[in-house]
Amino acid sequence: QVQLIESGGGLVQAGGSLRLSCAASGRTFSRDAMGWFRQAPGKEREFVAAIRWSGGSTIHADPVKGRFTISIDNAKNTVYLQMNSLKPEDTAVYYCAVDAWVGARNIATIPTRYKYWGQGTQVTVSS
């Protein structure tokens, strides 16, 4: 049974930083990619960033480029999202998810392509 457990969310002032973690278990992830999404109240779930489990190649959505960085620690089966220069519009529930069997294709950026999801962690940025 795949489990994804997010942590690290909280309340931070604008301009501050947070690091989210996603501890993954229950599957061999070597052919997968891991993604971070976010969902603000009344809005659709939005792609944030993703990384290949094995090779480490990454993609970041335009709104977070230069501020957020996704990374992976294969030994700990944990994916991170370092968030710097946070803005109030970054306020959302952040989810990690598995793009299963990504292989050689492009990493997906739409939620429906992700098979497994965590419960989410709340990030609130005050102005």
Notes on the structure:
This protein is mainly beta and 127 residues long. The protein is 0% helix and 49% strand. The strands form two sheets. Strands 2, 4, 5, 6, 9, 10 and 11 form a seven-stranded mixed sheet that branches. A four-stranded antiparallel sheet has the order 1-3-8-7, with no helix packed on it.
Shape: globular
What is the CA-CA span between the terminal residues? 40 Å
Query: What are the segments in which pLDDT stays under 50 over at least 5 consecutive residues?
Result: none
Largest sheet geometry: 7 strands, mixed
Strand content: over 45%
Instruction: Name the helix and strand elements from N-terminus to C-terminus, one letter apiece.
Output: EEEEEEEEEEE
The secondary structure category is: mainly beta
What is the residue-averaged pLDDT?
96
Q: What portion of residues is helical? A: under 10%
Please, what is the oligomeric state? Answer: single chain
Number of strands: 11
Radius of gyration: 14 Å
Total DSSP helices: 0
